[in-house]
Amino acid sequence: MNPHFAYKDNILMAEGVSLADIAAQVGTPAYVYSKAAFTAPLDAFADAFKDVPHLVCFAVKTSANLSLLRLVAEKGQGADIVSGGELYKSLKAGIAADKVVFSGVGKTGREMREALEAGIMMFNVESAEELALLSRVAGEMKKIAPVAMRLNPAVDPHTHPYVATGLKESKFGLDRETALGLYAQAARDPNVSVVGLSCHIGSQLTSIAPFLEAAAKLKGVAQELAGMGIQLKYFDMGGGLGVNYNDETPPALAEYAAGLKGLLRDVPGLTLVLEPGRYVSGPSGLLLTQVLYNKINGEKRFVVIDGAMNDLIRPGLYGSYHRVLPVCRTGAPEVTVDVVGPICESTDFLAKGRALPQVAGGDLLAVMDAGAYGFSMSSNYNARPRAAEALVDGDSFTVVKARETYADLVRGEDPSA
Ligand code: LLP
Fold first, then answer.
1. Rounded to the nearest whole angstrom, what is the distance from the C-alpha of residue 188 to the centroid of ligand 1?
2. From the CA of 200, how far away is ligand 1's center (Å)?
3. Alpha carbons 164 and 146: distance in angstroms, whole number
4. Probe ligand 1: pick from 38, 68, 275, max atoms within 8 Å of CB?
5. pLDDT tens by residue, the chain, 417 residues
6. What's the CA-to-centroid distance between 240 and ligand 1, angstroms?
7. Cα 402 → chain centroid
8. 51, 213, 368, 412: most buried by Cβ count inside 10 Å?
9. Domains plus CATH for the chain?
10. Residues lining ligand 1, judged by CB closer than 6 Å?
11. This prediction's pTM
12. Shortest-distance atom of ligand 1 to CA 276
């Protein structure tokens, strides 16, 4: 059990605050984050790599609320971004531009300009055409773009196919030969400066071996580049460290760190860049929802809640498992149910075939470990306003994102147009 979300007198608490109190004041569905649960893994990363030059760049895509990003900024840590919007939010939250890494296969010219204007640390380049555009944009701006090539190390991360990114056939990264060719080209280009090498092989990895396999391939490329007279500054391993949603046994951070540090011991002068996302934010947040109805269809029992796939799409999209806990522990007998939302889709479920203590309309449920890829993947499907977000710190909480209103749903639309 996550120490930051534990029962006290049979009420589920976020740190020192009752989730029932938050529901009463903020309404449901709502995302609730624990500040301590979010910052502890950031500190753990800093600690695990403290004996080597390193930079932690939090993967903003997991949870981009400004108040969470501000906690990253306060630690002096950086950001891994994949869009101009994520750059905007990171800078607004106070993250230093020179600690921002820009990943992604489809950076636009406008996004490149914004990132060059801000003075980011590096662009992780994913194609020859991207490098050509970046060079042109930098040239027009009379700037020098710091680049890393993103290698596709062709390793199997043994994770869900939708979140595997380092497979040979995936759209991400560059094969070794192409990457080496682009390095040679970049080294001659006055508009770019070669600063690093990067990869990201997938997400929710539960073993260390694929990371080390990828790191060994990157190291080989770094050594080959050194032979070509290209000395790198940054060795970016991406994110991917898994968390425990149900019965997974992800590697300990210490084991991950020891493996990477061991492998890079004989390559001096490199700063290790890490882009953890889920490991930091996943367990730091939950989706608080209210039961609307019990529904029985023959043998099948459903608990219909006010949270839905537009709030948390992971179960519907990836078949992901999230623990579901009653906010009030009543000792009621367990029944096996599907926990479903109001959306008109069969993929609108948050749990399937789950043994839950019997609940009634009005009861509250917490969908656990939803801090990563939860709110950030939410939508307005079925014209549902997006949920509120609350951040708990000790015995108090703050609404860090107001619940959307119906007016928000029609912003920019005009029925007479
Ligand atoms: N760096 C890059 C370049 C990435 O593409 C990602 C995630 C990360 C870092 C962070 O990875 P993490 O530490 O969180 O595993 N929506 C899916 C996961 C998609 C991952 C996308 N890339 C899910 O809900 O499981």
1. 33
2. 8
3. 27
4. 275
5. 689 999 999 999 999 999 999 999 999 999 999 999 999 999 999 999 999 999 999 999 999 999 999 999 999 999 999 999 999 999 999 999 999 999 999 999 999 999 999 999 999 999 999 999 999 999 999 999 999 999 999 898 887 877 777 677 788 999 999 999 999 999 999 999 999 999 999 999 999 999 999 999 999 999 999 999 999 999 999 999 999 999 999 999 999 999 999 999 998 899 999 999 999 999 999 999 999 999 999 999 999 999 999 999 999 999 999 999 999 999 999 999 999 999 999 999 999 999 999 999 999 999 999 999 999 999 999 999 999 999 999 999 999 999 999 999 999 999 999
6. 6
7. 21
8. 368
9. 5-33+282-409 (2.40.37.10), 104-274 (3.20.20.10)
10. 59, 62, 80, 103, 163, 200, 203-204, 238-241, 275-279, 314, 318, 372-373
11. 0.97
12. 13
Return the residue whose CA atom lies nearest to atom 9 of ligand 1: 239
Q: Is 295 left (phi over 0), alpha (psi -120 to 50) or beta?
A: beta
DSSP annotation of 207: -
Long-range contacts of 79-87 (CB under 8 A, 24+ apart): 80/238, 80/239, 80/275, 80/277, 83/111, 84/108, 84/110, 84/111, 84/114, 84/115, 86/60, 86/61, 87/111, 87/114, 87/115, 87/118, 87/120
Query: Residue 98 has which token pair?
Result: 């020179």
User: Mind giving me the DSSP string for 273-340?
Assistant: EE---HHHHGGGEEEEEEEEEEEEETTEEEEEES--TTT--HHHHH-----EEESB---PPEEEEEEE
| Cross-strand partners of 193 | 146
Site to substitute for ligand 1 among 38, 55, 57, 61, most atoms within 8 A of C-beta: 61
> Is 57 one of the catalytic residues?
no
Name the DSSP class of 415: T
